[in-house]
Design a protein that fits this description.
Length: 294
């Protein structure tokens, strides 16, 4: 156990000073200086000695250190070359940590998992995400259907709220559906700006996504399902039917759309934001059934 964690204001300032490190806003560099927040996050993630953890963006190693103290193994992807010597030194005592210098979005995660984790470990993603790419990072993990049990990440509250939103709320939209199609999503806690250096402009949240064994709904064609979702939220004030007719004018006649809405018993005068994921699936499967090109 170290005398003082990296996630403290004193050690963080000392490390930054020693290396003359200057933050790059373009890389979403806001480092955590409160070990309690990190421990709460790791507790919520249910990390233990049987966990293999992938971290995105270790920074100077504040979260990585807390993970290393509890998990079996931690693999962390860091894009900023300047942080490599820093991490080499701050995490020198943790043999169960491996840093990979790579843009996470370009990493072959299947290969990383196969090469680095024993097959019996339960796999997790735990990260304080670089905020400029939270959605692409999470969607790429979900769409690739990685064998990851739980994703517990810090991100801007506004995006976390949208990912975990329920129908009939202003946050509910295509992002909520994309995330909840693959996972059960909930907000673990909100995190004040004061636990970061430098302080970000927005409030953050810890979001947890628990992978479903199979997607929440069965759809005949995923592309069509997600296009219908997108179309339905395109103009939030328009009715569902009007959104669908204008978006799919090259593919379906308005009569076809009307007929399908009637068959699946969804009132076309409703707004997209009132439909559950199950209703979107009914609609998508109904429209797929009348699609010519399959
Ligand atoms: N984990 C540290 C903490 O909690 O204090 C730092 C988190 S900071 C919000 C985000 C980190 O992600 C930075 O270290 C940044 O350099 C890194 N990063 C940004 N874009 C990245 C990418 N595409 N792939 C991997 N790391 C990235």
């Amino acid at each position: 156990m170290p005398k003082e964690y990296i996630a403290s204001i004193r050690r963080t300032k000392e490390i930054l000073g020693k290396y003359g490190f200057s933050f790059k806003k373009s890389l979403g560099q806001n480092f955590i200086i409160d070990a309690n927040i990190l421990r709460k996050m790791i507790h919520a993630a249910q990390i233990d000695q049987n966990s293999g953890v992938i971290e995105i963006g270790p920074g100077i190693g504040s979260l990585t250190e807390q993970l290393a103290l509890i998990a079996n193994k931690v693999i962390a992807f860091e894009i900023d070359q300047r942080l490599l010597p820093v991490l080499d030194s701050t995490l020198a005592n943790y043999e169960n940590v491996k840093i990979i210098h790579k843009d996470f979005l370009k990493a072959d995660l299947h290969k990383t998992i196969k090469e680095n984790f024993a097959p019996d470990l339960s796999l997790h993603i735990v990260a304080n995400l670089p905020y400029y790419i939270t959605t692409p990072i999470l969607m790429s993990i979900l769409e690739q259907q990685m064998p990851i049990e739980r994703i517990t990440v810090m991100l801007q509250k506004e995006v976390a709220d949208r990912m975990a939103a329920a129908p009939n709320t202003k946050e509910y939209g295509s992002l909520s559906i994309a995330v909840q199609y693959y996972t059960e999503a909930h907000i673990v806690m909100d995190v004040p700006k004061t636990v970061f250096i430098p302080q970000p402009n927005v409030i953050s949240s810890v979001l947890q996504l628990v992978k479903r064994e199979k997607p929440l709904v069965e759809v005949s064609n995923e592309d069509l399902f997600f296009s219908i979702v997108k179309a339905s939220f395109r103009h939030r004030r328009k009715t569902l039917k009007n959104n669908l007719v204008s978006y799919f004018k090259e593919t379906y006649t308005s009569e076809q759309i009307n007929n399908v809405l009637q068959t699946v018993q969804i009132d076309g005068k409703r707004r997209g934001e009132s439909l559950t994921i199950q209703e979107f699936a009914l609609l998508a499967n109904g429209l797929f059934a009348v699609t010519d090109i399959k």
